[in-house]
Write a structure and sequence with these properties.
The chain has 307 residues and is of the alpha/beta class. The protein has eleven helices and 13 strands. The longest helix has 16 residues.
Length: 307
């Protein structure tokens, strides 16, 4: 299948300020594609250009084979959008909001089915303004799904939510992906990107500075992984140190810590131990995080959540 979203050398400026400086990447069908970056990196501007809500100044964008600038109506029939900041009329119930949005499309999903799918059936007759933050986000996701989109865009989906609500929204995103819809999301929560995304693009100062799976980003950066375990008896030290991905081995009593990098590093260590007939107990792996990669690539900490 063709790529769902294709950006080629996309540029956007506001006066003299260059926001996007030749952004290129592609989103594959059926994946959760994440974009992370510092505040002001251009994430929301880029997403709005892709959605057809904002005009880019140069380069090319294709979504489902359509040009967002020239084929906006066709694009909106086939895509769903949850904006970073969304609002509904006051005194509108959840059911009324879904029925209103469903009326905009030729072949909408059944609002009752969506309410069940997103765990909102018992809130159908509740005013949206009376819902909790997590419940309101579910409503806006439902509105983004009401036209049965082939790709859905989620911009800073869980900002402002408590940890329990955030976990619940993550389950919703996984369900969307499992149902066959491609998901393109932006986030400043590194754990969110790690837990949800098949691939992640790092946007900094208007450019994509890295794009890969999370393990791939960590491995390419050479960020170390630490594997620790307890052994009894002789340790095959020389064989462990000879592994190409191992940088250091340290033993303190029965506890062994091996430092290394690469996606296969932990399996290689366990393989050497198994071949030597050594049983590793209490095995723990501490992998370099996406946050460390982000800091190395951008030189800045991920944005702190607003209170």
């Amino acid at each position: 299948m063709s790529d769902v979203v294709v950006c080629q050398d996309v540029v956007k400026a506001y006066g003299d300020h260059q926001v996007l400086r030749g952004v290129s990447f592609a989103v594959r069908p059926g994946e959760v594609f994440g974009m992370i970056g510092p505040n002001g990196a251009g994430k929301t501007t880029l997403m709005e250009c892709i959605e057809g809500l904002r005009r880019h100044d140069g380069g090319a964008i294709s979504v489902l084979g359509l040009d967002p600038q020239r084929q906006t109506r066709e694009l909106r029939e086939r895509t769903g959008v949850q904006l970073q900041s969304s609002a509904l009329p006051t005194r509108i119930t959840v059911r009324e909001a879904l029925e209103l949005f469903a009326s905009f499309y030729a072949d909408p999903a059944d609002p009752r089915t969506l309410l069940e799918r997103l765990g909102l059936a018992d809130k159908a007759d509740t005013y949206v303004e009376k819902l909790s933050g997590g419940q309101r986000q579910r409503v806006f996701i439902a509105l983004a799904l009401v036209n049965r989109p082939e790709v859905v865009f989620l911009d800073e989906l869980t900002t402002g939510l408590d940890p329990q609500a955030r976990l619940a929204i993550w389950d919703v995103v996984r369900d969307i992906r499992d149902a066959g819809t491609t998901v393109f999301l932006t986030t400043h929560f590194m754990e969110e990107a790690e837990r949800l995304c098949d691939r992640v693009a790092v946007l900094d100062r208007g450019r994509v500075v890295a794009l890969d799976t999370v393990p791939g980003l960590v491995a390419r950066l050479g960020a170390p992984t630490r594997l620790s375990f307890t052994v009894e008896g002789e340790l095959p030290l020389a064989r462990l140190e000879a592994l190409p991905d191992v940088s250091r081995v340290r033993r303190e009593g029965q506890r062994v810590t091996v430092h290394g990098s690469g996606e296969r590093f932990p399996q290689e260590v366990v393989g050497v131990l198994s071949q030597a007939g050594v049983w590793a107990k209490d095995l723990e792996t501490e992998r370099a995080s996406l946050e460390a990669v982000f800091l190395e690539l951008t030189g800045r900490e991920p944005a702190a959540e607003a209170a």
